[in-house]
Amino acid sequence: MSQLQSPRLLDQVRQSIRLRNFSPKTEKSYLHYIRDFILFHHKRHPREMGEDEIRAYLSHLAIEREVAASTQTVALSALLFLYRHVLDIELPYIDDIERAKRPERLPVVFTRTEVKQIVAHLDGVHLLLAKLLYGTGMRLTEGLKLRVKDVDFEYRQITVRDGKGNKDRLTMLPTSLVEPLQLQLQKAKQLHELDLSLGYGTVELPYALERKYPNANREWGWQFVFPSWKRSLDPRTKVVRRHHVYEQSLQRAVKQAIRQAGITKHGGCHTFRHSFATHLLEDGYDIRTVQELLGHRDVKTTMIYTHVLNRGGRGVRSPLDE
Length: 322
Prior knowledge:
The chain is mainly alpha-helical. It is about 50% helix and about 5% strand. Helix 2 (about 25-40) packs across helix 4 (about 70-85), helix 3 runs antiparallel to helix 4 (about 70-85) and helix 6 (about 125-135) crosses helix 11 (about 270-280). It is globular. It starts with 7 loop residues before the first helix and ends in a 12-residue tail after the last helix.
């Protein structure tokens, strides 16, 4: 049996990923590129290979397959994870890689009027989630994974847990969303109490908390603010439980609302986050404040929104208008 056919290596990768509580999406991507790396080198075992083979594979992705720069970065991260955490091999710095070109694109931003037009075509939980993303600057997954205990109505703030880079941060709770969120929590609690009465009611907990606090997964504070309307089988643990609202559900609803509003911009759920940052800067808020609210590690990342503000008609007066 070939090394690729043997389940041992990929199972070790899978186990190591889950021990570190990586997302299912990351797990799927890492396994794909590790498998593809092995196939590219004619099913040789990674222990027999090293930086030269990794360099050849990554250059192949850029030149032959013409993948995006972000895709090449994910592939490199997957291979470094394999060698460091599964094979326990520390690789030297890998240079001379043919890098995929990263296009210099400005983020798409909705105007305030466009935001109003889009949310006017949404209803129910999709409406509340869209307003939450725009009103707080949260990423899509951060909003969907929001737990009851992390909404503070008294201080009007939301704690975003395990954001990008496994960092926690605080953002505001818009006053206009206080009452809708309280109503949403009432509905979520009714679902939770129903689940408990039927012998269900557990929720996925981060890291090793489920082992440390065996009963925490049934507590109300740990439940999702936006639970799914039906229970499902957790593919990792094989436990039937209620997940949060699925990404695709909100993404489809927002895309449809954009079309119905007659907006031709290529936007989606993440565009609400870009719009949040841009509109705060338009209102005169300090860029460091916006950086903290977005959870950016480097202020240079936040600076992209100042470029959005200064481009086009808003930054320069056309000579035609003289």
